[in-house]
Specification:
The complex is a heterodimer of chains A (389) and B (212). Chain A is of the alpha/beta class. Chain A contains 14 helices and 15 strands. The longest helix of chain A has 13 residues. Chain A starts with a strand and ends with a strand. Chain B has a single domain, classed as START domain (Alpha-D-Glucose-1,6-Bisphosphate, Chain A, domain 4, 2-Layer Sandwich). An eight-stranded antiparallel beta sheet of chain B has the order 1-2-8-7-6-5-4-3, covered by helices on one side. Chain B is extended, with a radius of gyration of 23 Å. Classes of the chains: A alpha/beta (389), B alpha+beta (212). At the A-B interface, strand 1, strand 2 and helix 3 of A face helix 5 and helix 6 of B.
Chain lengths: 389, 212
């Protein structure tokens, strides 16, 4: 079969690779119908997480059709249209039982790397480097889905592939970001990053009761899309002092909750940003925490900072004093896909959230490398390239 | 300062740095060494399994489930009421075999002994209830004999008994909780056979001794 493989830092190529096989009772083989690029892939492609091997198949946000089931699969049959959470969860450990699926104890077969880096090993993630288990990813014609009864979900009739695909990752990540904020109704929420996850977080915050959502980014077209599709207020940090603007927009209080949906390669303007870039390039810090710093500084006293942008290692100049003295609540994590996907599919079917507009560039698998280039450089108004093998 | 003076100053700073670094390295090594008792190396490792104690014991006494779970990497034969013989093979496919005699002292407590090996070992396992209804803690104590050189080579070769114990506990936990030990070694990739072998060696390192 054909698959989009990582060939070295910044290099991708489509290769002929063997087809996946059923390996355990609970496995599914899914024919991929739609597989989206994701901002977190860029950290892998660009070598910020040094756990990629030449030939690894990328991709973790996808949907498709079941073509083979292991003998232990009960929930799915051949021909079912399914969406699969990118986080692999066994369904049988304490974390899975308490719906903290991204912390699953048993789904990362290669736990040594993350145990050394983070103290404990969280769940494996499909197509997400050898730190996350070394699973083959979804930018391919077929993919093996372990624990199929836990990780795959039947898709409602009538919802198009290019909408459902985002129920795999962007929607649950956005929902979890808003869920972390503990909204009770009437809050002002600020969201850093107007990409797919940020826009889903903004919509989720509205559905969970936020009265106003303010979105921060530097790309006018993304901000315009968010304003039009989600109904948010916007701040372009390239020409506005974000902290001052947020203060004024909230009557001097600051946002009740700040969602960070950017991650370790965040951008900014000015000398601090230049300093961060130099340090990251020299690998003196692994991550650039620009937007997390802003979120902590902007958040109102006693508010919540919710981080769903991906960070890998160590950061510099983390404003712990601000977080401590303002008594902030910091919540963060990889999303618990399996907890949120069924509810999100219901909301999708009911039309409460429609992420279909994120798929600005539906393309073939063969054009995968070009899809990532468009996405990374934000060319041609690209919000997401969605690969159709 | 004269040239000679500079040289002596640099030498002094160099020597002081070397001694300082050496002390830090030695202290770190000591902290990671297993305890020594009566000529044995002793390590204690534990894992929490999210099942009540009876279910953990039940897993080991349900012969059919056990055989299915152990499958390709181990077989267990019952010798009498309390004694079992376990033969485990290297799951990576090497010819290594590991024979242990297991004695069940009481429900939730067992001992094992391995003698026909270059590093004789014995160990015991006690099951205790984890707090807050979080299942069962499997607490293992492993004693093994090994010369310092053999231990060093064992560490380098990745077959140190402590690493094997940690692997075994992780496997047992996975088998009890979800019925399989997940493995991505034969997942598709765009690698050549030589690249795949190199990747498998790296996978082995990332698998060995890791804990859930």
């Amino acid at each position: 079969m054909r698959a989009l493989c990582w060939e070295g830092v910044g290099k991708l190529a489509v290769r002929d690779v063997p087809e996946p096989k059923i390996r355990a009772e609970g496995d599914l083989i899914v024919r991929v119908r739609a597989s989206s690029v994701c901002g977190s892939d860029l950290h892998l492609i660009n070598g910020y997480l040094p756990a990629m091997r030449q030939g690894d198949i990328l991709g973790h946000e996808f949907m498709g059709e079941v073509v083979e089931t292991g003998p232990g699969v009960r929930q799915h049959k051949v021909g079912d249209r399914v969406v699969v959470g990118s986080v692999v969860a066994c369904g049988g450990c304490w974390y899975c039982r308490t719906e903290q699926y991204s912390l699953c104890d048993n789904s990362n077969p290669q736990p040594v790397f993350t145990e050394k880096l983070w103290g404990h090993s969280p769940a494996g993630i499909l197509g997400y480097s050898h730190a996350a288990g070394g699973y083959a990813g979804s930018h391919a014609e077929y993919i093996r889905v372990p624990f199929g009864d836990v990780g795959a979900f039947g898709v409602p009739e009538g919802v198009p592939d290019d909408s459902v695909v985002f129920a795999s990752d962007a929607m649950p990540t956005g929902w979890m970001a808003a869920d972390f904020c503990g909204l009770t109704g009437g809050e002002v929420v600020a969201v850093w990053g107007a990409g797919g996850v940020g826009q889903m977080a903004a919509r989720s915050a509205q559905l969970l009761g936020a009265e106003r959502v303010i979105m921060i980014d530097r790309f006018p077209d993304r901000l315009a899309t968010a304003a039009e599709r989600v109904g948010v207020e916007t701040i372009n940090y390239a020409d506005t002092d974000v902290l001052e603007a947020l203060r004024e927009l909230t009557g001097g209080r600051g946002p009740d909750a700040c969602i960070e949906a950017v991650g370790m390669e965040s951008h900014d303007v000015g000398p601090t940003y230049a300093y961060d870039r130099v340090k990251q390039s020299a690998r003196l810090q692994t991550d650039r925490p620009t937007s997390v710093r802003q979120a902590i500084m902007a958040c109102r006293k006693g508010g919540t900072v919710s981080i769903v942008g991906v960070y890998a290692g160590l950061v510099d100049k983390f404003p712990l004093g601000a977080a401590m003295n303002k008594a902030l609540v910091l919540r963060m994590g990889q999303m618990h896909a399996q907890r949120y996907i069924p509810m999100l599919l219901d909301r999708l079917a009911a039309g409460e959230i429609d992420p279909g507009y994120l798929a600005t560039h539906p393309i073939s698998l063969e054009e995968g490398a070009r899809g990532y280039e468009l996405f990374e450089k934000k060319q041609d108004g690209c919000l997401r390239s969605v690969l159709h093998p | 300062m004269t040239n000679n003076g500079t040289r002596w100053a640099l030498l002094g700073v160099g020597a002081a740095t070397a001694v300082g670094v050496g002390r830090v390295v030695a202290r770190r090594r000591r902290r990671h060494q297993p305890d020594r008792e009566d000529g044995w190396y002793v390590v204690r490792r534990a894992v929490t399994v999210d099942r009540p104690r009876d279910a953990v014991i039940g897993f080991w006494t349900d012969r059919e489930r056990l055989d299915r779970a152990l499958g390709e990497w181990a077989s267990v034969d019952q010798l009498d009421d309390r004694r079992w013989r376990c033969v485990a093979r290297d799951p990576a496919g090497g010819g290594t075999e590991w024979r242990a005699e297991i004695t069940v002292d009481e429900p939730g407590a067992l001992r094992w002994r391995v003698e026909d090996t270059s590093t004789p070992q014995e160990g015991r396992i006690v099951l205790t209830d984890a707090p807050q209804g979080r299942g069962t803690e499997i607490r293992a104590e492993l004693r093994y004999r090994s010369g310092p050189l053999r231990r060093l080579f064992g560490l380098v070769g990745g077959d140190e008994p402590d690493l094997a114990l940690r692997d075994t506990l992780r496997r047992v936990k996975a088998l009890v909780e979800c019925g399989q030990v997940i493995d991505t070694r034969r997942d598709p990739s765009g690698r050549s056979p030589a690249q795949e072998r190199a990747t498998d060696r790296m996978r082995e390192k990332l698998m060995t001794g890791g804990r859930a």
